[in-house]
Amino acid sequence: MSEVGGLLLQFKVKNYRSIGDEVVLDLTAGSGKEHSDFLIELKKGINILPIISMYGGNASGKSNIINAMGSMIFDVKSSHSNGERDDTRINVNPFVFNDKLKNEPTELEMFFTVGKHEYQYGYKTTTNKIYEEWLYRRTLSIRATKEEVIFEREGNKVVFGNKYLKSSSLLNRLKERNLALSVLGAWNASKMFSDIFEWFNENLHFHVNNIDYGSVKTYFERFDGLKDSFVKFLQEFDPLIKDLAWREATDVDGKVRMIPFSKRDKGEFHFANESEGTQRLLRIYTIFYIALNEMRSTLVYDELDAHLHPLMLRRIVSMFHNKEINKMGSQLIFTSHNLILLDNRELRRDEIWFVEKDERGFTNAYAMDSFKGRSDLDYLKNYLSGRFGAIPFAIAGVQK
To answer: Model-level pTM greater than 0.90?
Structure first.
């Protein structure tokens, strides 16, 4: 169980798939006063958003923003082992439809908190070579505080700030496809590096709807309240399910393993017979429960609403807004085509982001609070009329 905690403050990406120019996803709260009770207060005057929701047409690049975050998480977690096999690569893809960008590095950067500090970490890389890498930190404060250089890297040369490691024998392991942070964190160069590495490994979750039943069962056994909480949540939408049990049975792939069974008045049913939405909910709710009750986390999903009823999506978001439920102050970032949440009663303006491509095919992202308007604005009506952009075709007489 991670004790590091921490929150994502900002994510930046440049030259990744359809993202040509820099895209910035900002999770620090804007100046809007609406729904101030939703916000996570890190320190007095420092408020962070618990939700980022992204909307836009098909092929606008929403998934590419999510996947860029996933690439960064994956590379920090695993690139320390790159080079052990000849086929290992950094997990990036540049914008290939531009003659200049397709030969330039991808740039990824995160601002996040661990303990009492805010960190800024990023790197520039191709699939085969890391060109630059940097890690800075400052004391978390509403006032300006001095930024400290932890390390800066060019090529394979890493220079540490005065207060930190002068050198490390661990960097003898460093090759063109190894992130220095991944090496220093994985091999416990110091508590600071271990804590940051743990945050990427344990507190940042990408596409966690894909966890298997074995992992779900392990979590159910580890957290006493998880099963009852899931059953109670499920009964809000399917009151005929009375309980959940684990039995040894043949799975859909023909292998015998421990499988969840739903208990109903007329007996137990293999969970594969439940709807796709119910099956998916078992996987994602497991991680939601841990994030809300056990470990501060940032959860990242593409198309969170897939196979879920709109009211279930609304219920999930409301849990992250409710401090009595979201006891750990966790965050949820997701894309969706379901517009039920485009409502001033459901989300703050800075929690709603729109994604669209410009005439060059570059993905752009921007928050609703970048538009002027009253706090009681009809979000859905204005979105569908084209006021905010990010609609896929000519609609309601508005030509995109």
So the answer is: yes
